[in-house]
Write a structure and sequence with these properties.
This protein has one domain: Peptide methionine sulphoxide reductase MsrA (Peptide Methionine Sulfoxide Reductase, Chain A, 2-Layer Sandwich), CATH 3.30.1060.10. It is 35% helix and 23% strand. The strands form three sheets. The chain has a six-stranded mixed sheet with strand order 7-6-1-3-2-8, with helices on one face. A two-stranded antiparallel ribbon has the order 4-5. Helix 4 runs parallel beside helix 5. The radius of gyration is 17 Å and the shape is globular. The chain starts with a helix and ends in an 8-residue tail after the last helix. About 3% of the residues have low confidence.
Length: 205
């Protein structure tokens, strides 16, 4: 029975052969919302990586000092989408020339990075970074580093763009999903992506 179950798992897409990509693209709410729409991506988790402290809180990371990035862990089916394609979309969903944060979000936790899981991912990430630099004719500030521990953020931050809970924002009481849209627009993410990447911009709304 165990042998049969293992054989069936090998035949099921997105089960035995699922792979992961860990990327930092500024606000993890935005990266999660973007990549969850990609065919072949089976899950996206918002969290933190690249720092020194174990199990950091959102407040610790955003206040600085832990060295963590806001990041997403993307689970994908390589039979439907390649790691190289995920990287192509990633570079076109951020401003990789900006080393100080992303859009209106400034500081270390909002920097971009690719966290490579092994030599194959590193080679693919280095190639994608070089291609992005050639496409933009600019120096790319996004580093490619070895992946370490990834710490999921608490439930409040997962699927933020979908949540219907009403919260108090600077725009007044709003559903989280509405607050997310207002934040994204006010932060200038999509406007900057269109300016930088033109028709190549990924996910620009």
């Amino acid at each position: 029975m165990l042998r049969l179950a293992l054989a069936l798992m090998l035949l099921l897409p997105g089960v035995a052969h699922a792979e992961k990509a860990v990327l930092a693209g500024g606000c993890f709410w935005c990266s999660e919302a973007d990549f969850e729409k990609v065919p072949g991506v089976t899950g996206v988790v918002s969290g933190f990586t690249g720092g020194k402290a174990a199990n950091p809180t959102y407040e610790q990371v955003t206040s600085g000092g832990t060295g963590h990035y806001e990041a997403v862990e993307i689970t994908f089916d390589p039979g439907r989408i390649s790691y190289a394609e995920i990287l192509r979309l990633f570079f076109r969903s951020v401003d990789p020339t900006d080393g100080g944060g992303q859009f209106c979000d400034r500081g270390d936790s909002y920097r971009t990075a690719v966290f490579a899981r092994g030599p194959e991912q590193k080679a693919a990430a280095d190639a994608a970074k070089a291609e992005a630099g050639k496409a933009l004719g600019a120096r790319i500030a996004t580093p490619v580093v070895s992946a370490g521990a990834f710490y999921p953020a608490d439930a409040y931050h997962q699927d933020y763009y979908k949540q219907s809970k009403v919260i108090v924002t600077r725009f007044g009481p709003r559903k989280k999903s509405t607050a997310y849209k207002l934040y994204r627009e006010a932060c200038g993410r999509d406007a900057r992506l269109r300016e930088l990447w033109g028709s190549q911009a990924a996910f620009a709304q």
